[in-house]
Amino acid sequence: MNGPSTLDTYGSQTSFSSAGTGADATLVLTTAMSVAAAVIFLLVMGAVWLAWRRDRPGSVWWIWGGGVILPVIALGTLVVASTFTLAAIGRVDDGAPVIEVTGHQYWWDIVHDPEGRALRDANEIVLPLNIPVTLSLKTEDVIHSFWVPSIAGKMDMVPGRINRMTVTATEAGRFRGQCAEFCGLSHPLMAFEVVVLPQAEYDAYLEDLRSEARDADTAQLARGRDVFLNEGCIACHAIRGVAEGARLGPDLSRIGARATLGAGMWRMNVGNLAGWIADVQDMKPGAQMPSYNHLSGPDLRAVAHYLASLK
Amino acid sequence: MQGKPVVPLTLAGVAALVLVAITLVSVWSLAHPQRDPVGNALAAMGARLDGVRSWYAQGPVEASPDWQAMRLNVPGGDAARGRLAMVEYGCGACHVIPGVASARGTVGPSLDGLARRAYIAGVLTNAPGDLTRWLMNPPLFSPETAMPNLGVTEADAADMAAYLYTLGPDA
Amino acid sequence: MIDATADRPRQGPVLEELRTYEEAWATPPGWRRLSSVSHRVVGQRFIVTGLVFFLIAGFLALLVRTQLIVPENTFLDAETYNQVFTMHGTLMMFLFAIPILEGFGVYLLPLMLGARDLVFPRLGAFGYWCYLFGGLIVLASFVFDAAPDGGWFMYTPLSTKEFTPGLSADFWLIGITFAEIASVTAAVELIAAILCTRAPGMSLTKMPIFAWYMLVTAFMITVGFPPLIVGSILLEVERLIGLPFFDPALGGDPLLWQHLFWLFGHPEVYIIFLPAAGMVATMLPTFVGKPLFGYGYAVAAVVTMGFISFGLWAHHMFATGLPTITLTLFSAASTIVTIPTGVQIFCFILTLAQKRPRLTVPMHFILGFLFIFVIGGLTGVMLAAVPFNWQAHDSYFVVAHLHYVLIGGMVFPLIGAFYYWTPHFTGRMMSERLGKWAFWLMFSGFHITFFLMHITGLRGMPRRISTYPAGIGWDRLNLLSTIGSYILAAGVVVFVWDFIAHRWRGPLAPRNPWKAGTLEWLYPPIAPGHNFHAIPRVHSREPLWDQPDLLENEAHETRGLLRDAPHGRRETVGCHPLSGEPLQIVRLPHPTWIPLLTAFAVAVSFSAVLASLYDIAAAGAVAALFGFAAWAWEPSETGQTITTNDEGTLPVDVASRLGHTHIAIIGTLMIMVALFASVLFAVMFLWNVQPEFTRLAGDPDLFWTSIAVACGLGMSLVAWLARSAPMAVLDLAVALLAGVAGWALYQAVLPTDPMATALAATLWVMAGFIGTQQFVLLYWSLFLALRKVSGQVAAGQIVPEINRVPYALVTAGMLIAAAVVLAAPQLEVLK
Question: How far, in Å, CA of C443 to CA of C455, rounded?
Answer without folding.
Answer: 19
